[in-house]
Structures are given as structure tokens and as C-alpha cells.
Amino acid sequence: MLRFGKKSVFWKWIISYISIVLVLLVCNVVTNVRNLKVMEERQAQMNEVVLQQLTERVYDNVLQIEKVRERIMVNDHYHCLRRASASQYKYLAYRRYALYCDLQDFLAVNGRCSKIIVYFSNGDYVVTSDTVNTSELYWRVFQNEIGLGWDEWTTLLKGDYDILYTKKTGSGADTGMIYGRTLQSEQLGQKVNVFFLYTADDIEQMLMSHTGEETVSVAIKGSADEVILHDMGGLLNTEEDRLLVENAVLQTLPQVKLTNGDEIILTYDANTFKGNVCLISSENIYMESLRQSQQVYAVTFMATILLSMVLIVLFAKNNYKPLKELMDVLGPEEWISVKHKNEFALVQEKVSKVQNENKYVNQTLRRQNKLFRGEYFAKLLMGGKVNLPEKQLEEFYDISFVSDSFAVMLFYVESYEEEQEEGADLNRAQFILGNVFHEVLEDLECRVYQTKVSDLMILVINMPESAGDGRRILDSAMTRGTEFIDKHFDMEYSVSISNVHQGKTELSLGYQEALQALEFKRLYGLDDMVYYSDIIELSGTGYYYPIEVEQDLIRQIQASNYEAAKAVYENVVEENMNGDTVASQDTLRCLMYDLLGTVLKALEEKKEDEKFTREMRPAKRMSACQGLTEMRETFEDILYRTCEYMNVKSGTEDKEALCEQIKDYIRKNYYDPSLSVTSIAEHFNLAPVMMSKMFRETVGEKLPVVVSEVRLEAAKKLMCQSDESLGEIAEKAGFGSVRTFTRIFKQVEDCTPGQWRESHS
């Protein structure tokens, strides 16, 4: 501390702590000066809170009344009674009784008022929640509860109340109120009014629900300059005091002095009811407790300041001890170069240097471990032998397994496009796939390791102990991962998954299974996700092509019936590719040559011109095919040309007319996202390959190009004629997505749709 002098943090701590105490002292002085104003504001705020609670309660009650009124207006019995004339009154006893029962239900739901009264002027009778009678008899029976004289009662019943009407009833401690609304005016046949009667107990229960303590009183202004006063806090001891407060409320005075000299504060609601609810409180309710709290606070604060000054010195010395020990570790030679530093600056400099060195070393080790870890798993997948101790290698490469169950997941990227970034390649696509499925599988409690073999991205999945056969976890991972990638990336890819094997030594078998499943997927056009367990039974040695099927194919060719011949051929291929036993690739190639021989047999049996066979060169074309898909397309073309040759004497369709029909069909259905060569061929009952070739030879353009041109023209018209978004235009033009629309538009117009729209607006 002495060697750092005034730069030492010890003195900074002392100064900081003392500054805090001084700030508190100044705050206390200011608080004492403004104490009276603060207490007044506090009282006003608390009054506002209580008043807000009261007004909310009153407002909620008014809303409840409105709901009951609406329920009465849609009541079937009420509708019957409101349309009745005075002469019909005695015949509607059942309707009055039914309405009386419904009013009892409404009262039970409302639960806040004592009575619901519906007055009908025709017949001068009332239907209430407790009886059905004439207005006069009802008043005589319930006069004490109503709290109104006969004149007041008749005037109330026959009044017009377009808005909610509030009427004071009773006097003194028994003051209540009545809410009234007109349900039907006299112009519609008879006057119908509804009234909700609240006794003093009802009002007090409604208001006390929020105050919690009987410390305040409340006044509610009626509709006829009446004040409904409820002295719940016992602030008004005489009738003279009540009159003083009622007059003050009518005049909206902020305060009033009672006969005993106490000051009463009046707080009015300025929002919901605009002064109709007034809170009555005594000036001394809060002030006395606040003054006592202020005295206790002043004594406590002074004692705290004195104690703080003593503790500041003691704690500063105690806190400095660990820092001094740390400085002693650095050594005296480090203290010489700290003329313009304190202890923390010196330690921070040393720690930062060590952290940077450690961070660089850790990054280097992680890169090396990731590289060697990938090579280690690649060697296991390829069946290579690991000569070094595996446990030490796994510990060194940060490899740990949660069980002895493993599966291999292999990814093959078909295509990947990223419009907003240039240079997107296979590595980026594999990086996205690997990271997405890595995260999903780890969420499912799997341990996952990535590697590459022959440019194929591979995930080695270590299944948890509770995985069972593992299929449920793998299905869940594939569903979640595929949904995320399809939503955020324009990517086509295939995934193959091996069986679950026990032990690391079986990883090479898992890799071979995943690789074989991927080959089957590409060979047979299976789904983008394929399990080895689903294709394990698809291996076979022979193929299905009985002699009776061959004879049927020959007959259809000789009859120049291409559709029937194609159906026979497709049935043979379907049986061999998707039947109970699927032939291998080599076996399927043999089948295609056998089918080609059947076509040639049909020509030989009919003794057709050998020149046609030489020009068609069927054997040479078939042998030049690279895969089964190309072989099938070639065979379909040969089959079509042979049937067409057989039908040459009867003439052929007008190709130009057919092409015009195809283009007309495209112009009428361009908005359909599923419009393709296959769907068009299905519509015209043609083979897709033959139709595509015929269209290209006749028109000079490929069918997909014509479809794109028609859609682009439609999109351009929409962009010029409307302000719709590119997404809406892409959907209406049949592109399916903005991404596809933008890609095709840029290929044709060499600019984006947005740029084109701006230049043509």
C-alpha cells in the first residue's frame, strides 16, 4: 500500500465509502426539509389508489347491471310482455311468472343488488326478483326496503332513462340507491323500465371489497343532484357534519372542516365517472404514522452513519489483505514499474496476458482435436486398424460415449442454392446439414461426432442407454432437422441411416449399410430419407417376366397400341422394383435388354422393314445408357417409335395441332405450382419422354422453358398492374416460392423482379 502511495486502491476505497455516507447525509437533510410536502403527496397518492379501487368496483357493478339489462332485453318472456296491451295483461300470468323466475336467476348471477324490478306501464304492474304485482301493492309491501315515498315511487317508475339513472333512497345510515334504465319507450306500445335496488348494506359491501379497512367514507353523486353518503370510516358524528360534506361534494370542494374542527379531504374521480365518486378521508389518517416513521428513521440514520464510519476503516483494511498477498506473489521486481498504476491495473495486465495465451492455445488444440477426431472416426468407418491405445486417444481427442450403441447417418447433397451469398458450395451445405442434425440429436440425449469419407458428410451417433432399438430417436431427429432445413434453406439432399450396432468395431458395418441404403435410394428413386432396415429385404437374384406377359406385350405392339404396351411394360418394371423381392441393378439391366428383345421379336414376326431397325439402333442406344433411369427413358422411346411405325398406314396425329393444344393448356393452368411435364403428359394421356421430345422437335423449345415463359409474362403483368408483394405474385404466377421466382427471373431477364418493377413503374 505504501509503495503505491496515493494511487493505491485502499485510499480510493476509503474515499468512495465516505462519499457514499456524505451523499446519504445530504439526502437526509433534503428529506427533512421537504418532509411535510412528501407526506402530503403520500397521502394524496394513497387516496388516489383507494379511490381508483372504489371507482373500479362501482364501474364493474355498472357493467354487471348492463349485462343483466341486455339479458332481460333478449328474454323471450320479456318480449311477449312488452308487446302486450293492457287488455291482455290478465292472460299473461305464465309469462309474468316465467320472467319472475328468470329475474331470480339474474339476481343470483349479479349477487350485488337486493332487487331487480321491471315496470310495465300497460297494466301498471311490476315483475321483480321477489314477486309479481301492481306497482301500488308492491310499494305498500316493500315500502321500507324501497325507501321512497309514493310520489317519488310513481315518478321513478314512469320516468325516461336513456342513460343509467341513479336515485338516492332512504336517509342517514339507511341511505341506499336505485339504478334505472328504460328498456322500451312509449312510442313502441308501452313504457318498460328496469330498476336495480341497492340497500345501504349492498352499497357498503360493494365499496368495502377493495378498501379492506373502515378508515374512509364514500359519496356517490346521484342523477338529480343527490349525494349518497356512506360513512364507513365513522368520520361524520353528527347530522350537521353529514350535511356539510354533502354540500361540499355537490360543489366539488377539495376539503371541508367539520364542527369539531377536523379537516376532511375530498378526492374526486376524474376518469371513469368524472367526479361522481368521491373519497372522504381524514387529514390525520396517514400523517400521524408518517411523522412517527420519520422520527424513527432520523435516529436510525444517524446511528448508521456513525457505525458506517467505523466499519469503513475496518473493512477496507480487511479487504486489502488478499490483494496484498497477490502483490507479494508477483514479487518486488514487479512493484518497481508501477509508478502510474494501482494494484488492480497491474493484476489486470498480468491476467489478461495469461488469458490471451491460454485462449490461443485452447483454440489451436480444439482445431487439432477436431481434425484428428474426424480422421479417427473415418478410420473406424473404413474398417482401419487403430494401433494406438483407444482409451488414451479418446481422452486426448475429447471423445466420450454414453452407451455402446452406435448408428451411422450419411448425407448426400443433391443441390444447394443461397441467393444472398455467392460462392455457396458443397462444404457449406454439408456444414449446415451437419450442424443442424448435430444439435437436434444432442437435444435427444445422443452423442454425435462428424467426419467425411469420399466427400460424403457422416454423423456417428452414439445412442443413449434408454434408446431401445433407436428408431424412435432417429425418426424424431429426422423430422425436426428436415423441417428446419426446408424452412430456412433451398437445399435438396438425401439421408441414409444404418441399423443400430453394438460396439465401435461395428462402425464399419454401419457405414457400409448406410452407403448401400443411399445407393438403393438413388437407384430406385426412394424417399429422401431411407433406413437400411427398410431396404434389407429388397435384394433378389432373378426377375419377373413370364412368357405369357411377353406374348401380351408382343400382341399390343403388333396392334400398334402404345398405351396398352406401355402398361404391360410398366407393370413388369414395377413388379421387379417395388414388389416383394426387388432385383439388383445388374439384374434390372438384363431385364431391360430382355424387354428390348421382345420389341424386336414383334418386328420380326410382322416381317417389318429391316431399314427401320437399323435406323433406330436399339441395341446400341441401350448399351450407351449410364443408369437404369436412362435405360427406361430410352426403352420407352423405342417402344413408342415401334408402335408409331406399326400405325404408319393409318396415319398419325397432327403434331403441330397437339403442340398448340399443349401450349393452350399451359396458358390456362400456368398458376398451378404442380404444372410439369409429367402432369401435362398425364392430361393428354402421353408418355412424358415421348411428349417432351415431340414438343421440342416440333416447337423448337423445351416444355419447361415454355412453362417458365408463360409464368414470367403473367408475373410481369401483375407487377405492372398491382402493388402486390413478390410473394403474392410468385404464388399467383405458379412459381410456388419467391426464391424460385427470383432465380428464374434473373436467368431470363438478368435482373431481379424488384429491379424490373422499379424500371417499369
How many β strands by DSSP? Answer: 17
- The portion of residues forming beta strands comes to 5-15%
Summing up helix and strand content along with how strands pair, one would put the structural category as alpha+beta
Unreliable sequence segments? 334-338, 418-424, 537-541, 649-653
Give the count of structural domains: 4
What form results from the Cα inertia axes? flat
Order of neighbouring strands in the sheet with most strands: 3-2-1-6-5-4
Q: What's the gyration radius in Å?
A: 47 Å
Q: What distance lies between the first and last C-alpha atoms, to the nearest angstrom?
A: 76 Å
The major pleated sheet works out as: 6 strands, antiparallel
